[in-house]
Amino acid sequence: MRGRKPKPTDMKVLQGTFRKDRADAREPKPAGQLRDAPDHLTEEQKTIWNEAIQNAPSGLLKPLDWSVFEVWVVAAHTHRVAAEKVQTMGQIVKSPSGYPIVNPFLSSMNKQAAIMIKAASELGFSPTARSRIVIAEEVAQDDPWAKLAAM
Asked: Is 80 exposed, middle or buried (0-12, 13-18, 19+ CB in 10 A)?
């Protein structure tokens, strides 16, 4: 497809740019909130999952997003482990033949960073995406004038 990727309606609502006359009626509308980490993740990965869920804007992550979110979580964990290895071993290590080479964990760390950045942009986690998100204030249900003022 050509042109920009279409922005999901939920993202438009969070940013305050949603217009009903331009809404795509055929867009799927996933329900619910993404919450619990899958059982097959390690404890460290579950910790990363829970921290990210707690810090994500409310209503942004849906259960349908689990696969992209899981890729981000696993990449974040693998990046963290590789970064620790690079920190302890250094960026240059000796090969089995004795010659200095670039630490293999450094390339793993860089690959995981690229995966994280790509998944983060899909999820709205990048600083650029975050700067465009403005969570609309909730309108008081009992005040009919508050809804009018919010328009």
From this structure: middle
